[in-house]
Amino acid sequence: MSIEKNPLQINIIWHINFKKGKEIAESIFKLLNRDPDEINQHEVGIPVHFNPNSKKINTKFSEKIGIIILIDLEFLNDDDYQKEIENYLDKINTNVFMIPILFEKNIEALRIKQIKKSNIFKLEEEYLNSLVTQLEITDEVEYGKVQEIALSNNILEKLLSELYEEKKLKLFLSHTKRDSFGKKQAIMLKKVIEDCTKTDTFFDVNDIEIGNDIWLEIETEIKEKEVFLVVINTKEYSNSSWCRKEVLCAKKYKRPILEINSLKGKQYRSFPYLGNTKRIILGEDFKKIDFYEIVTEIYLKALRLKYKELLMVKFKEQGEILLNSPEVLDIALNPNMKNIIYYPDPPLPKEEKDLFDVIKKEIKTPLEVLVNENILEGKNAMISISETEPVYTFQIKSFISEIVRYFIAFDLNILYGGSLKYENSPLNLLCQMLKTIEFYKKNEEIDSQKRIINYLAYPLSEMNIKERIKYKHNIEFISCNPNNISSEEAENYLKSIPKDSAIIWDTSLKDMRNRIVNDSNYIIVAGGKLSGFKGEFPGVLEEVCIGIKYKKPIYIIGCYGGVAKEIIKLLLKDKKNNELERYGNEIKCFDEGIKILNNGLSENENKMLFELESSIQIIELILKGMSNIEGENKK
Hints:
Helix content: 40-55%
Mean pLDDT: 84
Number of helices: 21
């Protein structure tokens, strides 16, 4: 199998000593990929990878590579580092473009030949001060916000120019003249677009003055051109037949819509067909900076539309394509729509999908196409993942919520050994799973089926009684306390583990790991601490070794480093400087190579899984392996 390439991936490079580098990289991840804490977000979904200190960029699995380079003083003062990046960029042969962002004034210290100084976005004091003046900002908090928005808008403008090429997106501002409030907002939005952005490169901005004489012209433009409708929804908006027609026309021809909600007081009937669109609430005391932020949302919606279009084009001959989450209105506006409708991942929640059964339409995302209906229902997928280097924390968190929502969609149960005790830590994977479960879980499951089975070793097994009650509808808790130690001792034990009693925790962990692996049908492995772990061995290592012993299907993801990465090296016979060598006999099980993973994937597919960085591509391979196994079992 050669996995289908992503249309685009983004890699972010920064000097390891740039104090704000990781924070900025995470904000870009949320912008272009998804915010793992916003489960219902209509994300752009572009794969984003972190490459501090120019860690090798994997170019195998994407058609086009965008490299965002964060240039600070540390970057400029390190000639060796600049030379390293220059040499590395020379070796990349694929379709690459760069987005260099300068946080300092001294551009002369930049010596990387592939970076044209004319293309550098200078996010430094002089530029920010000019924006502050144009946006009429006096508040210090808003000053900091300007830098964040300016960074986002510059990146989005560059990506739009890459994906839309020479095309312009026609921006229609839809509002009723009956409300002076809405007209004032339309004027301010146009002004901000003209003064503070490069949108003339991408947008023709039109303030619709509609009438019978030009409606056909407007409808033709919406139908035939790249049109984006910005709705300024005020009290009188839904009373205007022209405004209603504009929205329905945009929906009929599958054009993106962004609603600016400026309602005051009562609105006796809201316009029902503005649902399924992103809504920005704008109060009476709006400022120019609010519209600068709205430009970001317009850019994002346009980028998401184009990226999803590139992803979905392969389904054009097989059925109907929608680029947003489907709604029943789509069928009413297009009654001749094909019976199978393909839309971008992630899948809709169950209660929304059921509506399409009533009107006899089948809806699927690309990943749902991979798995035969109900083939994985009731199977147990164990997730063996823990933190590694801090740079991966955010990406692991995102991956967890991504894979859990697919496991829920395919009716798998999730097995995990971890504690709610650490719910305020930067990476509590169990809490992340819960957020996803609570959004996607089917209504009828509330008191019947628990989708997470949480295994807890002593002393954690005897704690957090309140949390267990709170989450009892979603989690089945299994205590692993082979030594039968009382709950009264648990708190004291955890605060100060006696050296001569550390074996108690170790035996409890071993019991937990044996039980969870034995109960699983599949094991997903990523990350894993190489030091600072509890017990005799790293947890991820021990769970994989037990899985091999029980001949369980194991899927190992290498992109987050840690124990998983070192196991991959052993499977590929690379023992040089391996961090796991000190475990001697424990790691001999890896001598047989990739075939011991027993996971329904070929050797080449496993090697791809070892390298892949895109969550969707990783999940695609895992689901393929699971489906292959279940397909064989049913023969």
